[in-house]
Amino acid sequence: MRHWIILPILLMSLVACDGDQLVPANAPPAGSQPQTDNGQPTPPTADELLAQLEQAGREHPAIQADTEYKVDQQLTGDSEHRSGSVKYQADTPERPAMFYVVFNTLKLGEGPTMADKVEYAFDGHWLTIAKHRIKQMTRYEVAPAGERVEAFKLGKGPFPLPFGQTAETMNKYFVATTEPAGQDAPQNSDCLLLLPRDEYAEELNFTRLAMWVDRTSHLPVKLISADKSENITTVSFTNIDSSPSFNEADFHPRRPAGWQYSQESLHQADNIAP
To answer: What kind of fold does domain 46-265 have according to CATH?
Structure first.
């Protein structure tokens, strides 16, 4: 998983969220936000949008959604497109945050879409990756038993996801702005552009991030990011269920009989991509 959610969460010119470029903007729930003279909703400020995202994270500690994941490698012209679903459970005093992602299909470049199931599960301690095509399961120890890590901080953790982020943390690491969402924006959404602050640019793993936010639920529905290798990653979330019911087994894939199995620390892994 290169830089998921996700999250885990850009083309060469990421100035506006227009078409395949980046732009930002957002507005509160329909019917509750101020309007301009022509009756159009007035987009909130970046701080207001970040506050909405934080509030949505508190109101929706569990998320389930379908997801599309695409990486365009600008230096080689190659691309990888996967589709699947994601489950996310926020942390509680009793246990850390967890997620489960399964990709069911793969399309390389202009080639055909093929079945290629890959599972990722994180239970707060172990990251499990199951590659069904080659019958291989690997478990990576992300944190020592009993110790918590900030695995989901955008741009910092091993698996940054756009859910459950706080305005304070976002403002600490990024300069946030808002602009019109662009013609290719998800319906009923606005876009927030996040640029790493100079003092944190070296430690963050992307150079720009655009996040489209639904105006009703205030949950992220699309992200486009650029990393330091000039890879452009696009992630979208659809059919979002903000009140699913999970159990512990959802975040612990079974080890199938006859598969190759290994176990190691995350820092020993050079590449955990699908």
So the answer is: outer membrane lipoprotein receptor (LolB), chain A (2.50.20)
